[in-house]
Design brief:
With 343 residues, the protein is of the alpha/beta class. The protein has two domains: 179 residues, Rossmann fold; 137 residues, Rossmann fold (3-Layer(aba) Sandwich). Helix content is 38%, strand content 19%. It contains eleven helices and 13 strands. A seven-stranded mixed β-sheet has the order 3-2-1-4-5-12-13, with helices on both faces. The chain has a four-stranded parallel β-sheet with strand order 7-8-6-11, with helices on both faces. It binds 6-O-phosphono-beta-D-fructofuranose.
Length: 343
């Protein structure tokens, strides 16, 4: 069999581990692998490279993706699906493995419906796909965020400041929730639960009154105060999947807090630092296993499926089902964080 592989959407630590898993398993089965460059864009320009064992020898340790990525949405491009079919035919690809989040896998599902053999591997640092317990990249992201929070504790404590830290997470607050708990944030704010600025200020005041000299707040980029109807954005631009560029909630909240509590307040945006650098052991292992599993699915001709982790076992679900629902933070999970908050 001749396999194709591409990585789409935002990069995530562990992508190269998946590529390694795919190439090693394919090699064992005598399959060839073609790596398509820069996500779905490669279906338009045909850019690809052959991938052999020597190409993946050392990549498990590397962050990012050796194939490059893009947010090109094939479904929005005129004759995009047809162009993809022509490209895949010209490269003699029997099955295309797409590694990506809901957007990338949504395109893979559409391609499958239009007659192309596709298989999906879920990826997102946001960990917000309902169809899998974990996506690789998330563990690395929360560990980076936790380390940053650790560092912010010492400077906030020295200056007796409130520090508002903005973390990634458009619709789901998993990064703020888990990095916030691990990194000992005193207040955690997520997109799933609108927050009241006065309530936050009261928590800070209570800490001050009880002799606590500083406060760390972890806030998801998509978190929304009750007083606003819309998320804060960097600009009005949307990407080809219709996502706005979020950003600014930490700065906005820091100003509100300083005004209302008179406590000196600073904000920090961790941004793409959360996605950069070497993957954690968990993400290297999960990525490798998902890569091996994707090729096993191709061998079984289970096209139109995506790899899914349930507990510690890998299964598969249909691509269509797999991208249907976002996994958001439940009220119960947030209630756990609330118990820790303000202390
Ligand atoms: O989807 C993953 C993610 O990291 C989100 O958390 C974030 O909002 C977005 O990507 C950032 O996208 P970009 O890399 O295009 O700025």
């Amino acid at each position: 069999m001749r396999l194709g592989v591409l990585t789409g959407g935002g990069d995530a630590p562990g992508l190269n581990a998946v590529i390694r898993g795919i190439v090693i398993k394919a090699n064992q089965l005598g399959y060839s692998v073609t790596g398509f460059l820069s996500g779905w864009r490669s279906m338009l320009d045909g850019k690809s490279i052959p991938l052999g064992l020597e190409d993946v020898e050392t990549i498990v340790r590397k962050g990012g993706t050796i194939l490059g990525t893009s947010r090109t949405n094939l479904a929005k491009i005129e004759n995009g699906m047809e162009k993809a079919k022509v490209t895949l035919k010209s490269k003699n690809i029997d099955c295309l493995i797409a590694i990506g989040g809901e957007d990338t896998l949504g395109v893979a599902a559409k391609l499958f419906k239009s007659g192309v053999n596709t298989i999906g591997v879920p990826k997102t640092i946001d960990n917000d796909l309902e169809s899998t317990d974990y996506t690789f990249g998330f563990d690395t992201a929360i560990n980076i965020a936790m380390e940053c929070l650790d560092r912010l504790h010492t400077t906030a404590e020295s200056h007796h400041r409130v520090m508002v830290v903005e973390l990634m997470g458009r619709h789901a607050g998993w990064i703020a929730l888990e990095a916030g708990i691990a990194g000992d944030a005193h207040i955690i704010l997520i997109p799933e639960q609108k927050f009241d600025v006065d309530e936050i200020c009261n928590m800070i005041q209570k800490r001050v009154d009880s002799g606590k000299t500083y406060t760390i707040i972890a806030v998801s980029e998509g978190a929304l105060p009750k007083s606003l109807d819309q998320n804060l954005t960097k600009d009005n631009e949307v990407d080809s999947f219709g996502h706005i560029k979020l950003g600014g909630i930490a700065e906005w909240l820091a100003k509100q807090i300083e005004q209302k509590t008179k406590q000196e307040t600073r904000h920090t945006v961790l941004g793409h630092i959360q996605r950069g650098g070497a993957p954690s052991a968990f993400d290297r292992v999960l990525g490798t296993r998902m890569g091996l599993k994707a090729v096993a699915l191709a061998e079984e001709k289970k096209f139109g499926q995506m790899v899914s982790l349930r507990g510690t076992e890998l299964f598969s679900v249909s691509l269509e089902e797999g991208v249907k629902k976002l996994k958001t933070v439940s009220e119960e999970r947030y209630a756990e964080a609330r118990i820790l908050m303000g202390k």
